[in-house]
Design goal:
Pfam families: Esterase. By secondary structure, the protein is of the alpha/beta class. The protein contains 7 helices and 9 strands. A 9-stranded mixed sheet has the order 1-2-3-5-4-6-7-8-9, with helices on both faces. The model has no long low-confidence stretch (mean pLDDT 95).
């Protein structure tokens, strides 16, 4: 177990249905945080949606800048399956870790795949070892969702990404320091398609706005996956690289995961 310590917020003093977890991780040798929504559900074995944030952000931005909980509650009223929403910090490296294993800088992949998984299972009673996990993200978090979802394909039941960085080199569009600060950034294993073409990935979709500077990179990834015969969905939508786009289109992630979850439940 890589978790050294957990601190979990008291629901009596927390925003409604929201929990904050501070994890002292040996993968990062420091503390980082996770926000969980629908944390007090009385259901059992609920499916989990991991939402990864972009550069500059942290565990709180999906809710407090993107209103993701409001989108979720609106869709619940329309019949969406119940999920637990898990929003972790990226690990706090520079302006963004890209959710990578960066050698001496820290293993930000295992922070998500081991520490976040374990912390949620330990502290959220609605989540168990039987719960299915889905992953989504925006911008750098979209990259994290694509990479982790394909690399750890047996751990996830679906992948959805919005406005994604598709290659770590694209971080240069968002940070003002040289990318050599990221150890081994050029590794082939840091490309989603490296893992996707190996096959047996879960259902995959991604989208990007027509006015987004990452649109061409997303189209190129779509073409690479298509040529490799990787089953996936790609949508070019209206909008740019901005919170109004993500607030609107995270609904597509929820509906995509809802369809998959209903298929599992029908088995």
């Amino acid at each position: 177990m890589s978790i050294l310590r957990l601190e979990v917020s008291n629901p009596d003093y927390s925003p409604a249905n929201t929990q904050t977890i501070t994890v002292h991780s040996s993968h990062l040798t420091r503390r980082h945080d996770i926000t969980v929504y629908n944390a007090q559900s009385q259901a059992k074995n609920l499916a989990v949606v991991v939402l990864l944030h972009g550069v500059y952000g942290n565990h709180w931005v999906w809710m407090q800048m993107g209103g993701v909980h409001q989108v979720y509650e609106r869709l619940r009223q329309q019949g969406l399956q119940e999920f637990v929403l898990v929003m972790p910090s990226d690990g706090g490296y520079m302006d963004g870790s890209a959710y990578l294993d960066l050698a001496e800088a820290g293993n930000y992949q295992q922070w998500i795949m081991e520490d976040v998984f374990a912390a949620v299972q330990q502290s959220v009673t609605a989540v168990s070892e039987r719960s299915r996990w889905y992953i989504s993200g925006l911008s750098m978090g979209g990259f994290g969702a694509l990479l982790l979802g394909c690399q750890f394909s047996q751990r996830f039941s679906g992948i959805s990404a919005h406005s994604s960085i598709t290659n770590p080199s694209q971080l240069s569009q968002f940070v003002d320091y040289p990318l050599h600060c990221y150890p081994q950034l050029e590794k082939a294993e840091h490309l989603p398609q490296y893992w996707a073409v190996k096959g047996n990935i879960p259902p995959l979709r991604f989208d990007c706005g027509a006015d987004d500077p990452l649109l061409l990179a997303n189209i190129e990834l779509h073409q690479i996956l298509t040529q490799a015969g990787v089953d996936h969905e790609f949508e070019q939508l209206s909008g740019g690289h901005e919170w109004p786009y993500w607030h609107k289109n995270v609904e597509k992630s929820f509906r995509f995961f809802d369809v998959i979850e209903r298929k599992y439940q029908a088995l």
